[in-house]
Amino acid sequence: MTATPDDAQAAAEAAEGTEAAAEEAAGEAAGEAAEAAERARFDALVAEADAVSVAGWDFSWLDGRATEERPSWGYARAMGERLGRARAALDIQTGGGEVLASAPKLPPLTVATEGWPPNVARATALLHPLGAVVVADEDKPPLPFADGAFDLVTSRHPVTTWWEEIARVLAPGGTYFSQQVGPASVFELVEYFLGPQPPEVRAGRDPEQARAAAEAAGLDVVDLRMERLRAEFLDIGAVVYFLRKVIWMVPGFTVDAFRTQLAALHHRIETEGPFVAHTTRFLIEARKPG
Q: What is the DSSP string of 88-131?
């Protein structure tokens, strides 16, 4: 039987259909493989970040995984300069003692307080060899020290600032020097997990509120400045570690509770690049009239 033009066209169309089906199947297989690889990477990154210790206040685990601009004033250096001139100093909420330990010279009397037991142990091991005493103390008044006991009180990123207690333990002419988290810090990340926050939450930690509270406690504010800084999370492990360590950002955060949102954010980072947020920091220095 002689093939007709219609037969030839039908054969060609059948071949094209077979080729298209093969390409579609290959595309689906490649897509499934890519999804499996992404899931495996997600599981590995999350498991690693969920297992690592978050004791202390050292963020070096994030090196190469997250970046954050630093304030221009250089808190650790400026704190070290003031410690070098002090006779008796108190560092409140010292964390693991890392910032205090970085000072070139500590005063003859140096005391640090910390409320979280793992950090108390870490700070004790780090600071005792330097001659500093670590006191386990909850973050609530009163401070366990006499009136006028210190000529310098410092604190980096305190959860709460108890201004009346700071004024009480400062000697006349003494100084409070602190770098604090400002309003709506890293709220791009907070609101990704928790949704839009109300205005009163976004406006919390306003430096002008700190000024008013310091002055109400009888202190003179001699320096107050704030900066907004860029932060980038390069992988989902960095996000997990950060939220496990800075527990007040997303209260109740666990990997299991937020796994669906974490998976979606992982896909976003993998396809679009780093998750960008902005931190706010303010520096405040206040003196007790002498």
A: EEEESS-TTSHHHHTSS---SEEEEEE-SHHHHHHHHHHHGGGT
